[in-house]
Specification:
The protein is mostly beta strands. The chain has a single domain, classed as TolB, C-terminal domain (Neuraminidase), CATH 2.120.10.30. Strand 18 and strand 19 form a beta hairpin. The longest helix is centred in the first third of the chain and has 11 residues.
């Protein structure tokens, strides 16, 4: 498989901006350096019977570097494949791959808001049977390393499913999703998602807010030391008497802002657009998300309340490149 070309990355950035970490609603000016100890541009070996997937893009606060994973896997047998953690330097058009400990799958990675660290999670490669895959998810771990690839370490946490970690703006805490496995044969693999947070200085690990017991989850982002922006789905009975009424009332939004220690889930936000999900926020306070109006599109809601829409690229689905103000 060839290394990723510049034009591929351009399209990837365009359709995935809602998944980016762009400094995290803060004005950071970290500069960062291209990591010297990467193996440059080493492609993953694959065969045409296996899948291939790019996952969440994270943008360094300097605006010049992209971090993402490229995964190859056997359909229905993940984590039996492999994931490369890649870093792309836009000015020089150079692609790098982090040399990480073997024997694990690294599904996602992201820069910290200041760009000093990279936070990831991993699953052990212990087999492809159903029991082995379930065991691998139960043994998932969260790791940190400096952006230059040094000081790699595992964050000590109790056993259980841990996914999609992010760092706080001051780089002292990590928030992440915990969940439980569903019984074998269920339509979904896991559910009962809640956000936890570990203090990296003290090692104290606790529920950030809730429990809310979401059915599905998307990305997280710190808006402040005590507030998170999150994508999650799990309609609450107190908001509407039925699922149909809930969907009608909130346009099936899956976006929330939650405060630390909150025990009652607030109503979802971004209800102006149907099926709002995968939210992110820039340093000014503009919100970015995916939704439908009609068909799948990308949206930005400014701090003044205006909503701008970009149609999904034709190559990836219905719509066009034209943006417009709603």
């Amino acid at each position: 498989m060839r290394p990723v070309r510049v034009q591929d990355l351009t399209i990837l950035v365009a359709v995935s901006f809602l998944l980016m970490t762009v400094g995290g609603c803060m004005s950071s000016a970290a500069t960062g350096k291209t990591a010297p100890n990467h193996a440059e541009g080493s492609p993953l070996e694959t065969d045409p019977t296996k899948g291939r997937d790019f996952r969440e893009i994270s943008v360094h606060p300097n605006g010049e570097e992209l971090l993402f994973t490229e995964c190859i896997y056997e359909p229905q047998k993940e984590p039996a494949g492999d994931c490369a953690v890649l870093r792309y330097h836009l000015p020089t058009k150079r692609l790098y791959r982090y040399a990480l400990p073997t024997g694990y799958v690294y599904p996602t990675a992201s820069f910290s808001p200041r760009g000093n660290y990279i936070v990831m999670y991993r699953l052990p490669k212990i087999g492809i049977t159903q029991d082995a895959v379930r065991q691998a998810h139960e043994q998932s771990e969260i790791m940190l390393m400096k952006a230059d690839g040094t000081d790699f370490r595992v964050v000590p946490l109790t056993t259980g499913i841990k996914v999609a970690p992010i760092m706080s703006q001051d780089e002292t805490r990590v928030a992440y999703w915990r969940s439980t496995l569903r019984p074998p044969g269920s339509k979904t693999f896991m559910s009962h998602f809640d956000v936890w947070e570990v203090d990296l200085k003290t090692g104290h690990d606790q529920l950030f807010a809730g429990p809310f017991v979401f059915f599905t989850r998307a990305r997280l982002q710190y808006l402040s030391p005590d507030e998170l922006l999150m994508g999650a789905y799990g309609p609450k009975e107190e908001f509407a008497p039925s699922l149909r009424e809930y969907q009608k009332k909130y346009n099936s939004s899956s976006v929330y802002r939650i405060q630390r220690s909150m025990t009652r889930l607030p109503e979802p936000i971004l209800t102006e657009v149907e099926y709002a999900n995968f939210p992110s926020c820039d340093h000014v306070g503009n919100l970015y998300f995916k939704g439908q109006r009609p068909g799948t599109s990308l949206f930005r809601k400014s701090v003044q309340g205006k909503i701008e829409q970009w149609g999904w690229p034709v190559r990836y689905g219905p719509g066009d490149w034209g943006g417009r103000v709603a």
